[in-house]
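User: quick one, fold this
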Amino acid sequence: MIKKFPISIHKELKYYVYIYIDPRNDEIFYVGKGKGDRCFSHLFEDSEKEKVRKIKDIRADGLEPKIEIIVHGIEDDSLVKRIEASIIDCFKIDKLTNIQRGYHSKEFGRMSVQQLIATYQAEDVEVEHPVISFKLNSTFRYGLDPIKLYDFTRHSWKLGPRKDSAQYAFAVYQGIVQEVYKIECWLPQNSTLNSKYIEESEDKEVNEERWEFVGNIASKKIRDKYLYKDVSKYIKSNQNPVAYINT
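Assistant:
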């Protein structure tokens, strides 16, 4: 197995994006970027990283991972990072051993046409219903699994009695409504333990000082009114992720 490039071709390679493939099923399990012999470096790693465990598992079957170069000859470091991120976005992140999606994937990565238009030219909307808005700037990413988006939106907020007046909840990222939920009821944090969010959480204790709602995606009429619209004018505080509207 080749474990380094001839030095004479490094100049032609420049920056490149590469993939690791499991020869047992031809599935891609890692996407990376680099220059020189970077793509071979994982073959010599000894750590508990998932990609290293995968390589060891392949070798335990008497095989070696396949390495392929997706694109090369790139001169700009930021460009190769974006290419890497876009390739990662072509796969479900849970199918890869990459720890994260990639450089600027939140801003420039995979998203729907509606989300792309809303990112640059969102229409302002007048909110006519009692709503509680949740900013998800730290947890949101485009292409997020719908169940996780629901759980990130509904779970573990420090709220006052005004929550009980809200009919709908907005999942908001950068001032744009990414989903609308009809609130059915409020429960103390971690009450609904079937949630995927809770399963991944280290804190599984019920906390009556924080709240989560149970609900459903709103009706088509309500979603058509608010989805991918700009509600920035209702969010007065940069620090507070919660905003009450018409409650």
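User: anything notable?
Assistant: The chain is about 25% helix and 25% strand.
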